Amino acid sequence: MTLGGAMSQKQKMNVGRRQVLVSLGAFASLAAVAGVATNAQALGKPVPPTDEPTSQPEEVVAAAKLPDSPLGKTLPHGAKLGSWTIERVLPVTLGAIPVVMRTAAGDRFQVDILARDFAEGSAQGVANTSKLSLFIANNGSGACATSEEQGLGAMLLGRYLAMCEARGMKSPKLLTHAVRNSRYPRGNFMA
What we know:
Blueprint: H1 9-13, H2 17-38, H3 57-65, E1 80-81, E2 84-89, E3 97-102, E4 108-115, E5 127-128, E6 132-136, H4 148-166, H5 177-183
Antiparallel strand pairs: 1-2, 2-3, 3-4, 4-6, 5-6
Helix pairs in contact: 2-4
């Protein structure tokens, strides 16, 4: 953008989905924070079991064999975050914490939690906290359109993690987006 405020056509194209989602997410975060603050999960209380299984039996067995996630107590399996559900939180994988979520409609998606990168020009996630950056894992390299519902869920998750950080949550050792892509250029980041 020039100082006069006019944008070239190329600059207009750079106003991408992340900027749109960030704008939409600000509204969604404000609307949902009241619900999150009173939610049992937000207060660190255990999540009561539900009558309906959220996973197939083989997924439950596979998840039981995984080491604990560093965010397991902060993000328990089955926790509700607004209209989204935390289905699984995996251990650190290829430098990130994969979080599998579900929309209210039941659509599954993955959010990768990475260390926030403050370098100029670095990729910024759909949501950021003071130490973390959250990315939708869709194998799109930033070029694929992100579902608005998934982006809003990731932003609400980011807002929740920012509140946890403010309450003293320790951030696990994670890679930044750039370092992860450098170390694992052909990595399969999908859980």
